[in-house]
Design brief:
There is one protein chain. By secondary structure, the chain is mostly beta strands. The chain has one domain: AttH-like fold (Beta Barrel), CATH 2.40.370. The protein is built from one helix and 26 strands. The strands form four sheets. It has a ten-stranded antiparallel beta barrel with strand order 3-4-5-6-7-8-9-10-13-14. Strands 15, 16, 17, 18, 19, 22, 23, 24, 25 and 26 form a ten-stranded antiparallel β-sheet that branches. A hairpin with a 5-residue loop joins strand 24 and strand 25. It holds the Pfam family CrtC. This is AttH domain-containing protein. Residues 1-20 are annotated as: Disordered. It comes from Ligilactobacillus salitolerans.
Length: 328
């Protein structure tokens, strides 16, 4: 028997759609949520430096107190290196409508329209990036509220899928001016659902794809006892569609085994969304984009090619795998 949970009171999205009832507020919910076990602020980005490409990951997770941990990584795509610096103790402060996160590896400030982030690994590689939001927020499931993991994990989530980036990345002592796109994601879970996340059967895949035709696609596939997946599509005209996807677990390719964790991970997915006639090959740029704090995770830069409504599309995006996919 599936457990049911009651929905919270609605809020008004006061950023782009003031008449649509939602369970999230993209401005107000930049601040921490009370009584949450998982309270997360996350950016993945793809960056062009001319003859080099990089990806930058920024992730702050707040504990039930106002302290938390920060993780950063620079994916040096040209050399297939993942320059990771994770789980530094971090402080969070409310700053007007936004926030400031400070730790040994990260200084990150934000409001509803812009963000600034400076990060530095212990090895000395670093980034200094400015973000500017373009277009509306994406509220997952259309409301920013949905059940996850066999309908047992109450989940709130929204994102800023298009953020113009300027700045620099420094690797091996060389500074590279960069431009690109970032995807900011905001997510939280109540403490009451901690037992669901602690289950050894809990795992998920999240894929972000700002497509070359102006459509924005985010794919969720969450597995507990059963696998449930869907796509959120933010159309170029600002409308939002929730669509079925073919099971992600049945469409993985390029299986490899991590020397660090011993886990078998995929190198990508063939994503099919029938309602928009989309067939998209999502490929992780290189193996080893793995983090280890809490759940084992892949936090990767991806490239996408395929068709959408009969037209060829491409994308640079991100793929996240949380928990052991249990590939046989």
């Amino acid at each position: 028997m599936t457990e049911n949970f009651s929905a919270p009171q609605t809020k008004l999205d006061n950023m782009e759609r003031p008449t649509r009832p939602m369970f999230i507020d993209p401005v107000g919910d930049l601040h921490p949520q009370e009584g949450m076990m998982g309270d997360s602020w996350f950016i993945c980005s793809t960056l062009d430096a001319g003859d080099r490409e990089f990806g930058v990951l920024i992730h702050y997770i707040k504990k039930p107190t106002l302290s938390g941990t920060s993780t950063i990584a620079i994916a040096d795509i040209s050399t297939s290196r993942y320059l990771l610096d994770e789980a530094k103790e971090a402080d969070y402060e409310i700053a007007g409508q936004g926030f400031e996160v400070s730790s040994d590896n990260l200084k990150w400030s934000a409001d509803a329209a812009t963000m600034q982030a400076k990060g530095k690994t212990e090895a000395g590689d670093e980034f200094d990036l400015s973000f500017k939001r373009q277009g509306p927020a994406i509220a997952y499931n259309g409301t920013g509220y949905f059940p996850l993991i066999d309908n047992k994990l109450t989940t709130y989530e929204y994102g800023f899928p298009k953020m113009d980036i300027t700045g620099s990345v420094t690797v091996d002592g060389k500074n590279y001016p960069v431009t690109g796109n970032g995807w900011f994601d905001r997510q939280w879970f109540p403490v009451a659902d901690a037992s669901t996340l602690a289950s050894g059967d809990t795992r998920w895949v999240w894929i972000s794809m700002p497509l070359s035709n102006g459509e924005v696609v985010a794919v969720w596939s969450a597995t507990g006892k059963e696998e449930h997946g869907w796509a959120d599509i933010l159309h170029a005209d600002g409308s939002h569609t929730i669509a079925d996807v073919e099971p992600i677990s049945q469409n993985m390719f390029g299986i490899w085994t991590s020397e660090k964790s011993g886990i078998k991970w995929p190198s990508g997915w063939n994503v099919t969304i029938p309602s928009v006639n989309a067939k998209l090959k999502v490929t992780i740029d290189f193996q080893g984009q793995e983090t280890f704090e809490g759940f084992h995770r892949i936090e990767s830069v991806t490239h996408v090619e395929g068709t959408y409504n009969g037209e060829a599309v491409t994308s640079r995006g991100c793929g996240e795998i949380v928990g052991d996919p249990q590939i046989k």
